Amino acid sequence: METTRVLFCRHFVVLYLLQMVTPSLEQFMVKGLKGPILAPFDGEVELSCQLSPQQSAQHMEICWFCDHYTQPIYLYKEGKDLYGETTSRYVERTELLKDAIGEGKVTLRIFNVSVDDDGQYHCFFRDGDFSEEDITEVKVTGKVDPSEVCLHL
User: Could you read off the pLDDT tens digit of each residue along the chain, which spans 153 residues?
Assistant: First the structure.
């Protein structure tokens, strides 16, 4: 009986030590802004999302998608912004603010907001084989409705 206890205790200690030494893939959730978020026509809008629980995202792939496009509108991977793999109409109109990436928070800034920017934006984080996303809706305000334009002759 004593031998069984000793073996069990050793087995438990070994498992405990292995758990401490082995890096774990901590799962997370992505939390974005709840909206809709109002974006002024021809202005700029910032869309933020963050990991929960809070953790560094510097090593992760971070992707922003808009429902209108199959390509990402912004891609951050392996510590770099990858402009060549994004939708061309967003290349010079977006930037990813990474001041708080060490805490798992990023913000996508879109400049020169147009009517086409209306829609749902997906904030996507990938860490190895695990990924999560959240969706934020953007409504463009102050746009001109062509049916309301009157020509005075």
Answer: 555 444 433 444 333 433 433 344 569 999 999 989 999 999 999 999 999 999 999 999 999 999 877 889 999 999 999 988 899 889 899 999 999 999 999 999 999 999 999 999 999 999 999 999 999 999 999 865 555 444 433
- Residue 62's nearest CA partner among 132, 113, 135 is 132
- Reference 135, options 77, 81, 66, 46; nearest CA is 66
Determine the Cα–Cα distance for residues 149 and 124; give it in Å rounded to an integer: 39
User: Is residue 68 a contact partner of residue 116, using CB atoms and an 8 Å limit?
Assistant: yes
Tell me how long the chain is.
153
Pairing status of strand 119-127 against strand 105-110: unpaired
Could you tell me which residues come within 8 angstroms of residue 72 by beta carbon, excluding any fewer than 6 positions away?
Answer: 63, 64, 65, 85, 86, 87
Angle at 40 between CA 143 and CA 33, to 5 degrees: 125
